[in-house]
């Protein structure tokens, strides 16, 4: 596999425009009719792209591996998803439009219920309403500072929140406090950094770095423990949300800037905060948009002159797949297709339509199946496929490739990659 | 490529059952009719799986590489065949149901004939009958102990035997004594461990480890040399087997346990000892079975409730291919197919049918050709292939993949892999 480090040496700038249209969870499984969601849906506009493009499949991570949204998008953007791992805390915080800094460490939080012996009786505090969550975060748990480390408790939805610790020398190599089961006490956070004592190999420099990480994890545990203590004190009289559970401690990752790697002026259009967050994480410009698919395509039209790369994200296909709702997924594809004609009218030079992963309604969740993918450009050496669908993709000229290849292929088709070697 | 280390973090246990049915040397080449062995054979039951499954090809090691049985099975079981190299001595010893321990070092032996100048005149001692081999091993060469190292001389077949050295600090970094040609004297075993004197890089710990390996190889050579001397003394009056040649010195390899990696309770069903040995090497439970294909499927039926993974091995396809017997290979496929209906009756959740490599009758041996493979599960997103065969596999939805991916795909289809990342 070509690395991004290799690719960036070949990049040249030009005026050509690329659109990456991602239907979340696009790939499906056939229902009784023998056809998948994409095959049942009518999508004349996607088919116009297909007839002038090439079709095939992408593997988001590798055959057999079911990805979460984080690694799946990292891969779509051309990064190695195993190298750039996004922790749960970071991912959830990306999902609330929080402006994360390099000094921040985030954790995913649950409001929970404990009994008077400290045993967790409900890990989700009866799924309290979002309004209660907002009140607990914004009023009860506001302005907690521990040993100079500022914290931000941000509501997400129902019992879910994010907590961000801001300050120097925080280390995320610490374990969850969420016991993952009811009937147990919350776990004390543990140091999961490598113990420098046991390690005698490596240079002195490496040994020092390990010692530093280990000690930072130790002091971070003390801060997290004091924060939990303070939260418990403030929540004492609340019901049913009288305690908190934390998991997925994670700091910002050191990921190369997308615009820098590809010499693009990129824009992201997504309704859901998590996808805006993922785009922001790699340095894309996140555009304001509405709450409908139509509004996303309007945003594309309004901004088409200002950028040369657009990442567009359609959520509804995945939500319908997760719910096992075959028909709703079909409808989401059909609705989006209506607006694809507006995209075509803008005359982009390269269009890639794909999913971040498959979410077959039959499977009720993300799956490992390769994702139907189409690439349109004037120079793609088109195949004879006429309609977008999994069965047709089997014989398309795009073949089957890691999703990580999409960016290289889109860039090549836009004339944005010079030749390698003389 | 996804590593097994990565995969094991995603594994979850459930009740679903997987059957991996391996036709040794399955892949073929077309005869005058233009069809391969698999394409000429009638296999209605395999075709039932095909019609509800996906077809394609696997590469056991890599395109162009012809594998031996050892690396081919290591790869089928999901291990990196270049990382876990099984020496000849170990492989042959696995093939005789010998209970190999971590203290053992094995070598493949040949009984040979030398003249009175010590020159090898026949590397196979005229392919002595197996009964003579049994007698020489069990009576003449029994109970040899050298400097506290116990040896076991185990008959294999005709002129072939295994010798196992048991004791501490043995090192297999020593060269063969077999000169591979007649008209030469046996070679003295040489130290092929890295000479620690020439090496100035690495830490002190690494240098010490290298010195230790080098010294252990030195003392092992002394033991092996004394063993050969004693064997020559005892064989002096035998004819034509009056000496021995040793090759492929190899110790047990440190390979992760299959049941541990995949959280499976696995069972192996194979008539030939080498395949039982390969299964035992990775920690599968080896089931007692008979000497016919029918008995293998009876064993499957009897044990179906007790395990959640079955590796079944059919040898006859390879033997026929090696003999260049196209018709016999066709018959072996057809005979096995009869019993595949019994397998289907057991309602396994996932079935993979493949070969460890190709053995085309036209080639008279193992070959590098990709291996026809089918995967059946309720969730495989089936393709439109109706019959199992190389030409059809070209357009199947399984595509062409490294054999090492099979385990990940089987596990995914059985719902035994959770998603990677959130």
Keywords:
homodimer; 422 residues; alpha/beta; Alkaline Phosphatase, subunit A; 2 domains; eight-stranded mixed sheet; six-stranded antiparallel sheet; globular
Which CATH top level class of the largest domain in chain A fits? Alpha Beta
Which regions of chain A are unreliable across 5 or more consecutive residues at pLDDT < 50? none
The pLDDT mean of chain A sits at 95
Record the strand order, biggest sheet of chain A.
10-9-11-1-12-13-2-14
CATH architecture of the largest domain in chain A: 3-Layer(aba) Sandwich
- Give the oligomeric state: homodimer
Instruction: Return the structural class of chain A.
Output: alpha/beta
Most extensive contact: A-B, 41 and 27 residues
Q: What do we call the CATH homologous superfamily of the largest domain in chain A?
A: Alkaline Phosphatase, subunit A
């Amino acid at each position: 596999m070509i690395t991004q480090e290799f690719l960036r040496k070949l990049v040249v700038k030009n005026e050509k425009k690329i659109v990456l249209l991602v239907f979340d969870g696009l790939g499906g499984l056939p229902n009784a009719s023998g056809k998948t969601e994409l095959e049942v849906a009518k999508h004349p506009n996607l088919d116009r792209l297909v007839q002038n493009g090439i079709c095939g499949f992408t593997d988001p991570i590798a055959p057999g591996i079911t990805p979460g949204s984080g690694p799946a998008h990292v891969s779509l953007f051309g990064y190695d998803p195993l190298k750039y791992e996004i922790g749960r805390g970071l991912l959830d915080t990306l999902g609330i439009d929080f402006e994360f800094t390099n000094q921040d460490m985030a954790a995913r939080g649950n409001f929970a219920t404990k009994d008077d012996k400290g045993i967790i009786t409900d890990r989700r505090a009866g799924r309290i309403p979002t309004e209660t969550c907002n009140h607990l975060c914004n009023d009860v748990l506001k302005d907690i500072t521990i040993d100079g480390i500022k914290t931000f408790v941000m509501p997400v939805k129902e019992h879910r929140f994010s907590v961000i610790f801001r300050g120097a020398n925080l280390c995320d190599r610490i374990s969850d406090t969420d016991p993952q089961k009811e009937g147990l006490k919350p776990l004390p956070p543990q140091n999961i950094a490598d113990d420098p004592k046991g390690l005698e190999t490596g240079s002195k420099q490496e040994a020092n770095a390990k010692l530093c990480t280990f000690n930072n994890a130790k002091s971070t545990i003390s801060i997290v423990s004091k924060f939990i203590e303070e939260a418990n004190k403030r929540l004492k009289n609340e019901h049913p949300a009288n305690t908190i559970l934390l998991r997925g401690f994670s700091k910002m990752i050191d990921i190369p800037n997308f615009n820098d790697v590809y010499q693009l002026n990129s824009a992201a259009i997504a309704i859901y905060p998590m996808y805006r967050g993922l785009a922001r994480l790699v340095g894309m410009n996140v555009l304001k948009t509405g709450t409908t698919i139509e509004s996303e395509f309007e945003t594309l039209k309004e901004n088409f002159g200002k950028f040369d790369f657009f990442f567009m994200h359609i959520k509804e296909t995945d939500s319908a797949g997760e719910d096992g709702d075959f028909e709703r997924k079909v409808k989401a594809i059909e609705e989006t297709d209506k607006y694809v004609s507006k995209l075509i009218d803008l005359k982009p030079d390269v269009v890639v339509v794909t999913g971040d992963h498959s979410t077959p309604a039959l499977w009720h969740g993300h799956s490992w199946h390769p994702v139907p993918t189409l690439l349109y450009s004037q120079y793609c050496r088109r195949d004879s496929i006429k309609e977008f669908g999994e069965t047709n993709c089997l014989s398309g000229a795009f073949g089957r490739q890691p999703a990580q290849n999409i960016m290289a292929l889109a860039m090549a088709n836009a004339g944005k990659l010079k030749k390698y070697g003389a």
